[in-house]
Request: fold
Amino acid sequence: MSNQALPRPRFSAPDPEPRVPEQRSPEQGPKAALKIETTAPLLQGRVSEVPDALFGWAMRLCGFAVVALLGLIVYQLVVGSQLSWHAFGWKFFGQSDWNPVEDQYGALPFIFGTLVSSLLALLIAVPLAVGVAVFITEMCPVGLRGVLSFTTELLAAIPSVIYGLWAIFVLVPIMRTFVQPILAKTLGWTGLFTGPAYGYSILTAGIILAIMIIPIISSITREVLTVVPQHQREAVLALGATRWEMIRLGVLRNARAGIVGAIILGLGRALGETMAVTMVIGNRPEIAKSLFAFGYSMASVLANEFSEATGDLYLSALIEIGLALFLVTIVVNALARIMVWSVTRGQPAKSIA
Amino acid sequence: MTGVSILTVLIVLAPLFAIFAYLVYKGLGSINLAFLTQTPKPVGEPGGGMANAIAGTGVILAIASLLGVPLGIGAGIFLSEYGRNRYGDAVRFVSDVMNGVPSIVIGIVAYGLVVMRQKHFSALAGGVALAIMMIPTIARTTEQMLLLVPQAIREAAFGLGVSRWRTTLSITLRTATSGVITGVMLAFARVAGETAPLLFTAFGNQFWNWRLDQPTAALSLQIYTYALSPFDDWHRQAWAGSLVLIVLIVSAVAAVRIVVRRGTLAGA
Reply:
């Protein structure tokens, strides 16, 4: 699909002389008039090269604007965080003291909260999402495929504030009365599930994040599984493999890099997710061993404190958290894109539904 | 094995149905005329509604679309018609990466770009934030749709002596119109429910406001504020607001699809 070889329509007017005004002087009479008439269609082709070039450059400008936007984002974040960077340096990411009153800022509790809640989300979401993708591509009756993939993608269309609302009024009470007491009783000895069960916790944030990233992971995994060649499956089956062995050896192994890419993409989404996490994580900047404890994430502290930040240093520290979040998600996303591309070879996978 | 797979599907679908069922159940019971026509009552007083927030969301989305859609489609045209080279690859990669930038970070950027200059929160700042989020999505879907247009159609136009810009706009883009619009609506639906980038750009407002340079209410912001409040009546309104938001998004997408299918753009 290369447009590059496309021939540019070029209309050459072999005789440009008629455009010279002297020739239209009345002395030359009917002869001159005739000449202009015959060359008129040729002239049209020539004139249209100007709007053509203009249009081409306008479109290039639009394309460039996308890159410029990214540059603008980086510029805004870097300039905004200068003050805090000069005040704290690398210590900013190693300190756990967040005290706006004394102008002491350390981002460690937020980094901790973001990492732990996102990793928890991956732990829960990955098996489920890959399971759904395998079911849709390999086992599902054809009629059900469209419905299922549509429904899982519908999950992605729900605004995150509505996930948060649902989490506050449904998930948090469930966590408080059922899940947390049961976990404390059975797995309390690990130290990860101790402490009072408020319902609001890092664990709850991880679960709502998992629900939110399942559609992303599963739809990309589905795309990747679809491009695994059919003869791979047939070859493994011909060797006497069962269906499960076929999926494991013939499909999943071939699509490994792409699935890892899908998982990393899900991680990128989880790291930057703001509203739902802010609503259930408890919003207390501390580092606790127990998953039942309150936490705080990088995106949540921005959501809660940015519009109320009074001092310049306070604002700058928040922007630096934003910069860190931005850099991490950029790296994670770029990595994921490269891994997905390595499987699908840049071709948009054919939709299975 | 099949059993395990089916089980995972059920586990995944359970929260979806739970959320939808709860949303419809709670929302339908809470929507009334006052909710759709009145502004919020002062703290603690029951009643009132989100009329100003519904309008505010409309205004912010209109600004975002005005800024984001032309630029996004232009970038898409660049990618498909002029960008089959290194520069195009760079723009493609950047837009893919930008799709993953957390929305709250976009909010910070819009804050620096608009709010800091104007010295106060505004609908314009909210619109700019959402536009930045729309552009990469629209660019990539537009590109994919334009690439589906057969090369022969472009060549036929060139053969008739049509200039390149005219071919792109009247032939290529026109052939792909319904796909491009679908992509635009996808981006629209994605940003319509965004809350994080509006927190410190549009900021929210308890009253009617039609001025673009003043703080403006948005449905998603109002849902967030009410959900965290201690009042039952506000919780009720948060559910109603969520249902209205979902219905607005779905009906906007559906309406455009119907207009595309039959109407002036039919056959496009």
In short: Confidence is low (pLDDT under 50) at residues 1-43, 348-353 of chain A. Chain A touches chain B through 94 residues (CB under 8 Å). The two ends of chain A are 24 Å apart (CA to CA). Residues 108-344 of chain A form a domain with the MetI-like fold fold (CATH 1.10.3720.10).
